[in-house]
């Protein structure tokens, strides 16, 4: 082993020896394997589907993710930090009810206004409204049950569910692509992914829970709503605005640069952005669980824990994104075909943004734990405005697509650096 490798391992040792990293390892092993499956199948998909098909899938997935984040009114966020099993179970049930209510409301809205999707610039999805509702239902349920597993620190079943999700969804996308189903094959695969995840998690959750359901009463639900009212009132809006910032770019790119550019952008995110985001979410989920215990037992250790995790994420992020920056442009045509060279350029350009995002996003759970949702809301609004300005203004000025992506990456990097220091500022100093 080289001196540099030994030095790197020594830096990681304090964190690697902790229970925190053991839990991260359980989650990331599943997410890494699931993404490896997705990456292995991606070169097949790029030869079965056109860039425009990937563009439609990107719009579909973005819409589902935006709606999912508010489908349970964010009550699911309170499940890991509930002070009793009774409160946690009532929060879980309340979240499930909210998901079904959200899907029903969407169905009624589309029934009353048949051309709604066309009116908001999503005419390409008009014939797939049923797909949208099914995707939203199972995505919302998966999100809720996942937070129950975070409370129980059942990271193994979460890891398993992600592997099965990717394997099943990708397999059906390949199958339908070979049958020449075009974009609808990608959408069906996306739905199957959500459904299989729920089936796995709910099967595990339902074991031995009959008695626990007896604690769910109308009076208990009312108390739960009052106690955690800040989550739907503030966190829902913050989460919606935050996710608009995450998933609005494909809609803007489609509007100003066309479906082909949207397809190139979506492949870049599918291959690089999605794995990085999911790895960050894995760390975030374990950080949320561990930090919750620290906040309830030894609040004075919160800042040192934050700094320790941030330091190690910095070293890991450096390794990932230097390699990414150096290889993306040449690897994409090799792996996905010459037609997809543009996606490699996009990945290289966005590497600086994902460098900071990978470090900061997992740690931003602090504002939720400290019940400073109003601060999170303020940052989310700033980020959304920055996303819109960084993409729309250059497009209106006639700046090229690739130059616009560069401007977007630089502006968003600054915003994530700001979030890091906001979290640090609100942590206990003593």
Question: If you had to describe this structure to a student in words, what would you say it looks like?
Answer:
- The chain has 430 residues and is mainly α.
- It has one domain (3-426).
- It is 82% helix and 0% strand.
- It has 16 helices and no strands.
- The protein has helices spanning 3-16, 19-48, 51-71, 85-112, 116-119, 129-151, 155-178, 183-205, 218-227, 230-247, 249-297, 302-336, 341-360, 366-369, 373-396, 401-426.
- α6 (129-151) packs parallel to α8 (183-205).
- It is globular.
- 44% of the residues are buried.
- Mean pLDDT is 87; it is low at 1-13.
Keywords:
16 helices, mainly alpha, disordered N terminus, 430 residues, globular
Overall morphology = globular
User: What number of domains?
Assistant: 1
| Total of DSSP H or I helical runs spanning 4+ residues | 16
Write down the secondary-structure element order: HHHHHHHHHHHHHHHH
Number of strands: 0
Q: What does the main sheet amount to? A: none
Gyration radius, rounded: 21 Å
The end-to-end distance, rounded to whole angstroms, is 40 Å
Give the helix/strand layout.
Layout: H1 3-16, H2 19-48, H3 51-71, H4 85-112, H5 116-119, H6 129-151, H7 155-178, H8 183-205, H9 218-227, H10 230-247, H11 249-297, H12 302-336, H13 341-360, H14 366-369, H15 373-396, H16 401-426
């Amino acid at each position: 082993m080289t001196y540099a490798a030994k030095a790197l391992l020594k830096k990681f040792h304090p964190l690697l020896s902790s229970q925190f990293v053991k839990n991260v390892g359980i989650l990331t092993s599943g997410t890494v394997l699931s993404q490896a499956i997705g990456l292995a199948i991606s070169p097949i998909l790029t030869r079965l589907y056109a860039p425009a098909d990937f563009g439609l899938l990107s719009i579909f997935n973005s819409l589902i993710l935006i709606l999912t984040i508010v489908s349970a009114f964010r009550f699911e966020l309170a499940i890991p930090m509930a002070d009793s099993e009774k409160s946690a179970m009532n929060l879980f049930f309340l979240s499930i009810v909210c998901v079904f209510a959200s899907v029903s409301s969407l169905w009624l809205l589309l029934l009353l206004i048949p051309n709604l999707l066309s009116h908001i610039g999503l005419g390409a999805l008009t014939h797939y409204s049923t797909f949208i509702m099914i995707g939203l239902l199972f995505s919302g349920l998966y999100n809720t049950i996942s937070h129950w597993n975070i409370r129980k620190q059942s990271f193994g079943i979460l890891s398993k569910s992600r592997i099965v999700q990717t394997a099943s969804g990708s397999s059906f996308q390949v199958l339908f692509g070979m049958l020449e189903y075009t974009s609808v094959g990608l959408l069906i695969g996306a739905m199957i992914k959500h459904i299989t995840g729920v089936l796995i998690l709910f099967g595990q959750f339902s074991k031995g829970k009959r008695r626990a359901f007896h604690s769910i009463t109308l009076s208990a639900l009312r108390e739960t709503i009052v106690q955690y009212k800040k989550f739907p009132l503030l966190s829902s809006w913050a989460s919606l605005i935050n996710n608009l910032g995450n998933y609005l770019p494909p809609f803007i790119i489609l509007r100003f640069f066309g479906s082909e550019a949207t397809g190139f952008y979506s492949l870049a995110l599918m291959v690089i952005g999605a794995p990085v985001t999911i790895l960050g979410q894995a760390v975030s989920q374990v950080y949320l669980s561990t930090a919750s215990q620290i906040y309830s037992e030894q609040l004075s250790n919160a800042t040192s824990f934050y700094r320790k995790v941030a330091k190690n994420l910095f070293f890991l992020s450096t390794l990932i994104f230097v390699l990414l920056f150096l290889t993306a442009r040449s690897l994409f045509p090799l792996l996905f075909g010459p037609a997809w060279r543009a996606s490699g350029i996009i990945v290289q350009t966005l590497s600086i943004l994902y460098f900071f995002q990978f470090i900061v996003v997992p740690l931003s759970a602090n504002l939720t734990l400290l019940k400073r949702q109003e601060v999170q809301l303020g940052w989310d609004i700033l980020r959304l405005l920055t996303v819109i300005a960084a993409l729309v203004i250059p497009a209106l000025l006639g700046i090229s697509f690739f130059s616009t992506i560069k401007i977007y990456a630089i502006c968003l990097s600054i915003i994530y650096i700001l979030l890091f220091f906001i979290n640090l500022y609100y942590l206990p100093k003593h």
